Amino acid sequence: MKFFTIFLFLSLSLFAKGENVKIAVYNVENLFDLHYNGTEYSEYIPNTIWKWNRQNYRKKILNITKVIVDINPDVIALTEIESDLALRDLQKELSRKGLYFRYRAIANKKNTSVKSALLSKYPIIKREITVSQAWGVRNILEAKIIVYGKPLYIFVNHWKAKSGPESKRIIYAKALRRRLDTLPKNSDYILTGDFNAHYEEHKSFIKKRKHNDTHGITGINHILKTIDSNGELYTQSSLLTTGNYNLWMEVPKAQRWSHIYKSNKEALDHFIISPSLVDKQGSHFIQGSFHSFQASYLFTKNGKKLYRWQRSRTRPKHHTGKGFSDHLPLVAEFYIK
Predict the structure, then answer these.
(1) What φ, ψ does residue 253 adopt, rounded to 5°?
(2) Roughly what angle, to the nearest 10 degrees, separates helices 54-71 and 84-96?
(3) 45 alpha-carbon distance from chain centroid
(4) Strands, DSSP E only, in the chain?
(5) CATH code of the domain occupying 17-336
(6) 172: which DSSP letter?
(7) Domain segments of the chain: what residues?
(8) To the nearest 10°, the Cα dihedral for 292, 297, 301, 306?
(9) Separation CA 222–CA 168 (nearest Å)
(10) How many CB atoms lie within 10 A of CB 35?
(11) What's the rounded mean pLDDT across residues 8-29?
(12) For the whole model, what pTM was predicted?
């Protein structure tokens, strides 16, 4: 009887086994490699007057590495990566600093200037979602990672910037929505990346003629279903099985930002999770773990601006080899059961 009890305990312990997984997202602000292929932004064409050269490339890699090592994630979604070569160089540098990501993926089937990518300690099954064949419209990276044999879908997005109207972002949301609707019922998924949309975009853009060309409909709120029938963002208690939960709701309003534009703080980067990850019966988001990573070195000396990647103020303008990014990384932890 004693042997049976011990056997049963060990069996149940094995069955209930799970693991905390720390996931981050970071717009690194233009990590270009040193190979010219004709799609680079002018300031990132290698070895020109802009000095995008081996020295500055190396410094950019080192600065990104410092941020990621200090976060110490198990999985990190990245936006504004030019190529698999640049991603691989970053992966190698992280290994040199003791942070080993065995697996990597990048949405590189379309020849856009920058792309979405992922580094992971867990195996990845990669797909890409084609948003449009139009030039400059980036693919969405779908990475199914496997933890204890259980799949977790991570969709890495980089939507059209606010230089364009909401209709330019709607097409990303619709392409993503179509894919979500094909997933098995109750799938665990995370929608992350740079959406170039506020968590309450449906409220903030409504009077902006430049953006509101969709009669008040937004990609992040309406198409991805982060708001209820009253136009309010779902909370953990109000979330429906047909909706999605934006983790910005986990922190006070004053902390809901990842980017500064003309002194205005904006939440452009997001973690949006499936209802199944809110339900604590199985794999789930660990409450209290979501935050933006705000190391002091990511800010200018006065603390009012982000210490983005620097270019000289004097002509000829060039990269100085200093700074980090114009976005803050976001971090969240999940228990995968």
Answers:
(1) -55, -40
(2) 60
(3) 26
(4) 19-31, 75-81, 103-106, 115-120, 124-129, 140-147, 150-158, 189-194, 245-246, 259-261, 264-266, 269-273, 284-285, 291-292, 330-336
(5) 3.60.10.10
(6) H
(7) 17-336
(8) -40
(9) 15
(10) 11
(11) 74
(12) 0.94
